[in-house]
Amino acid sequence: DVQLQACGGGLVQPGGSLRLSCVASGYAFKNFAMSWLRQTQGKGLERVADIMNDDKTAYVGSAKGRFTISRDNAKNTLYLQMNSLKPDDTAVYYCSRRGDQGRRGQGTQVTVSS
């Protein structure tokens, strides 16, 4: 059974940084591409970044140049380093297997506010 648990969110001021983690279990993590997603009330669910099982990465929209996705296959853990945070980054952040957003597990709240 695929299980994904995101953590590391919190309240941060504009311009600040956060590092999110997502621990995966129930499947062979190293064999799957992974995504970070986020959801707000106004915009719905959107993809933020992807990392393939060969560590190639891709970023969507405003995440480019500010966020870094990475993975540690030995720890079955996905990361998202977020820098230069903006109020528009406020959302619940989730991880999922790429293309499998329906099983994204529990998210973590990120609030960017002064």
Mean pLDDT: 96
- Beta content comes to over 45%
Rounded radius of gyration (Å): 13 Å
Unreliable residue runs: none
Distance between the termini: 40 Å
Shape: globular
Give an overview of the whole structure.
- By secondary structure, the chain is mainly β.
- 31% of the residues are buried.
- The strands form 2 sheets. The chain has a 6-stranded mixed β-sheet with strand order 2-10-9-4-5-6, with no helix packed on it. A 4-stranded antiparallel β-sheet has the order 1-3-8-7, with no helix packed on it.
- It is built from no helices and 10 strands.
- It starts with a strand and ends with a strand.
- The mean pLDDT is 96.
- A hairpin with a 5-residue loop joins strand 5 and strand 6.
